[in-house]
Amino acid sequence: MSVLVYIESEEGKFKKASFEVASYAKEVAGMMGTSVTAITFNAEDVSELGTYGVDKVLKVSNDKLKNFNAEAYSDAIKQAAEKEGSKVVVLSQSANSKYLAPLLAVQLEAGYASNVVAVPESTDPFTVKRTAFTNKAFNFTKIETEVKVLGLSKNAFGIKEAQGDAAAEDFSPSLSEEDFSVNVESVDKATNKVTIADAEVVVSGGRGLKGPENWGMIEEMADILGAATACSKPVSDMGWRPHSEHVGQTGKPVASNLYIAVGISGAIQHLAGINAAKTKVVINNDPEAPFFKAADYGIVGDAFEVVPKLNEKLKEF
Ligand code: FAD
User: Fold this and answer.
1) Are 172 and 229 in contact (CB under 8 A)?
2) What is the average pLDDT across 29-45?
3) Which family does it belong to (predicted)?
4) Complex ipTM, two decimals?
5) Atom 28, ligand 1: which residue's CA is nearest?
């Protein structure tokens, strides 16, 4: 009956979002009077998961599962849920999990709620709070199937320490050739920079920066803060920055703890993608820029004066 969590890892390290998923599962398990079981793929040391409330870890070790494979992972997680009698399965909202969760829900004949932002309002009926309309509203969704699959929004619940045993158990799901009809053979990272999806801090530049040659100060700030770099749509459309950095309604979503926007006006389509960021800092020389209405902190000033000064100060910490 335990709550099952899928713990993602990359290059042998657990992803931070998975600790948040485990913390969340611990709270839900407490409400249901049960424990937390995690499933990992090719992870070595899983004891760390105990710190986030995981009581038991099903360790899958299989070379064929070295790289993410939605069909095979889904099949394995389904078998783990059945073995544990899990009625609730929790995943993060990473790109891989967003692909995996609906597949898993179909296999488990479960209701699936994505963008979950809080522990259930009630477990009977099972009702979860979710974001809607690009984070401008919430809805409360009742899931009536016996098994529920939840996708937890990043940074919605936070990482909380809790005591769990993280007792490891080898688990060998039975996988068929069909599970491997599509296979990722290898993954070559294009860059070693922090990705927007994983970043705690994102530093973003807009058309106010005038040209690609002026991004040095943005990259410097990102280096100091260990942040990812991002940009508005016109900036990537003009080729000043790669399309992978475009954030907003038609770009990547941002759910970092801190989002620093430099020379970005704050058009509705931009805000749609960054609403979920916890704290927004805006640097713009126009005091009427719409972004200031959405900002937690604002600096009215010329980016070419403010950002270098800010970088010097940040280096002192
Ligand atoms: P601008 O609107 O040109 O703003 C530049 C800002 O920089 C201004 O506020 C100005 O005051 C400031 N500035 C100028 N000089 C300085 C200086 N020296 N120091 C400080 N500040 C300065 N946009 C996105 O970003 N993401 C999306 O996903 C997206 N999707 C879209 C989808 C659709 C269907 C449509 C129609 C539009 C979309 N857009 C999107 C575009 C969006 O409407 C805006 O045009 C865009 O966000 C504006 O980018 P910007 O703020 O960089 O540029």
Assistant:
1) no
2) 96
3) Belongs to the ETF alpha-subunit/FixB family.
4) 0.99
5) 248
